[in-house]
Amino acid sequence: MSTVEVMPVGLEQVRRDWTRLGSAEPLWAVCVDPDKRDGGWDDDEFLASGRADVDPAVARMDELGIRPGGGRVLDFGCGAGRLSNALAAHFDEVVGVDISAPMLEEARRLDRSGGRIAFTLNERADLSLFGDDSFDLVYTDLVLQHLPAALAEGYVREFARVLRPGGVMVLGVPETERRTFKGMVFRYVPWPLVALAQRVVLRYPAPMRMHTLRTGRIAELVPGGRIAASDEYWGGDHWRHLRHFVVLDGAAPAGGGTA
Predict the structure, then answer these.
(1) pTM score
(2) Distance between CA atoms of 70 and 98, rounded to whole angstroms?
């Protein structure tokens, strides 16, 4: 008898929220800017913002001597493909993964790669769509913060599984809340109240969860990895964001996915 897989409650809520965001304001939801509400992002400007994020990260990998040559890239939480297109300018193949079908529709519309990006819907709490040692680079930026902490940590473990030995993870995540009014709201106010304020006061189509992922915790989640650098790269009055460059020096963890 076949079994029906039930999506974890937290992940189902993430799927519902980002499906709403992808249906209502896909580009703004990826790049939240008060001046870009109601369709304010121009397509070319939106994609250029992705190059402005990815190009320095690729240059930093070159500087550190860890950049994979050519290779296959996983863009986790690809949204509307802002970073996928930028990554395709540097690598042979990009797989963009997201939980929101409307976001992926927008990503396919904006695909300027000439066929080198594959956009894939993943509604699972793992990456079992992909086998062990499937990618040379895993890239995710300002995505894990929107997931419940246990799910975010589970995906980091999965990044290590699908990454080839010698491969690289680039993880852009908030390290800490800033000691400002907005930062302290996210740190101390219960999430249901923050979500209500986002919906009612800020008029978000759906709330955007936020939490931190500390450097030490990343090291614990990837025991076979080496953090080559952790750079502060984005400001704002809410969070202190770091971009971690993690090299998988040892053999990838076994099990978990299927080819």
Answers:
(1) 0.88
(2) 23
Q: For 247, which DSSP code?
A: E
First to last CA, the chain: 24
Give CATH for domain 9-217+232-248. Answer: 3.40.50.150
* Cα–Cα distances in angstroms (integers) from residue 30 to residues 3, 82, 83, 162, in the given order: 35, 8, 10, 25
Q: What is the DSSP-derived secondary structure letter of residue 6?
A: P
* Tens-digit pLDDT profile for residues 214-251: 999 999 999 999 999 999 986 666 778 899 999 998 54
Q: pLDDT, tens digit, for every residue of 23-75?
A: 999 998 998 887 888 788 999 999 999 999 999 999 999 999 999 987 999 99
The domain segmentation of the chain, as residue ranges, is: 9-217+232-248
Report d(CA 96, CA 104) in Å as an integer: 9
